[in-house]
Amino acid sequence: MNLNFPLEKITKLKARKRAIHKTKLSPNIFAENCPFTSEQLLDVEFFPQENNGIAIN
Fold first, then answer.
1. pTM
2. Nearest C-alpha neighbor of 57 from the set 38, 31, 35
């Protein structure tokens, strides 16, 4: 069991909420969950495609 999961989730939600507040942008712009895998994030060759301004894989 990963006991850090709730803390990680709370931290991510706080960061999202802070970004929304500071930028005054729509909450829809900030994803609640990262749409990319760990492998994609660590791959220097990976570059997501865009679809109407939204990154897709």
1. 0.51
2. 35
